[in-house]
Amino acid sequence: MSALLKLKVLEEYLQDLVGFTRPKIQYEQYETPSHIAAVALHTIQVRFEALENRLVLDAGCGPGVLAMGASLLGASLVTALDIDEDAIKIIMENIGDTETTNVEVIQTDFLNCNTYRWENYFDTVLMNPPFGTKNNVGMDMKFLHMGLELSCDSVYSLHKSSTRSHIQKKVKEWGVKGEVIAELRYDLPATYKFHKQASRDIAVDLWKLKHPHT
């Protein structure tokens, strides 16, 4: 299996995208580093052929690094959702700057039931959900569960490795297939005032969750 772009070239494209200017703590907005995004997306395509010629959803897209990467790797259409108006403006800027034509952007609450017009609609759902810390406890699992509702095949999601056993329990509870397909290091820069260190190196798992019938 192959990808339209080499990993290094994909990462270089993603490095040039505009990121958050004023990230919002209520949404746990952290940028997905270009290296993490490139490795995750390249893995998803090369190992599972889950991007090229697929209908893809980027849930909680932020500035759109996953959506834009999926587009570069040949997705037939990428739908990018975010609740935050400022994030929508940034991804629209990235789409305009790169003259991308196969990414549609919608401002909506991903967890709101009105998204069910897409139930089992997307081939592939991508997400780097809120970690589920501070005031967002459990948000990561809500994202993951909704992703499964909207996918007819698989969800690929980034989570702190420290939550691995919890996700394994949820996978069993939900009756789906789940595996960690890559272990990554997330160099998280100090983004908010409560961060005491300049950056933190966090172990991150790339999960693949799949409906048992597919």
Automatic annotation (TrEMBL):
<keyword id="KW-0808">Transferase</keyword>
<dbReference type="GO" id="GO:0003676">
    <property type="term" value="F:nucleic acid binding"/>
</dbReference>
<dbReference type="GO" id="GO:0008988">
    <property type="term" value="F:rRNA (adenine-N6-)-methyltransferase activity"/>
</dbReference>
<dbReference type="InterPro" id="IPR029063">
    <property type="entry name" value="SAM-dependent_MTases_sf"/>
</dbReference>
<dbReference type="InterPro" id="IPR002052">
    <property type="entry name" value="DNA_methylase_N6_adenine_CS"/>
</dbReference>
<dbReference type="Pfam" id="PF06325">
    <property type="entry name" value="PrmA"/>
</dbReference>
<keyword id="KW-0489">Methyltransferase</keyword>
<dbReference type="InterPro" id="IPR051720">
    <property type="entry name" value="rRNA_MeTrfase/Polyamine_Synth"/>
</dbReference>
<protein>
    <submittedName>
        <fullName>Methyltransferase-like protein 5</fullName>
    </submittedName>
</protein>
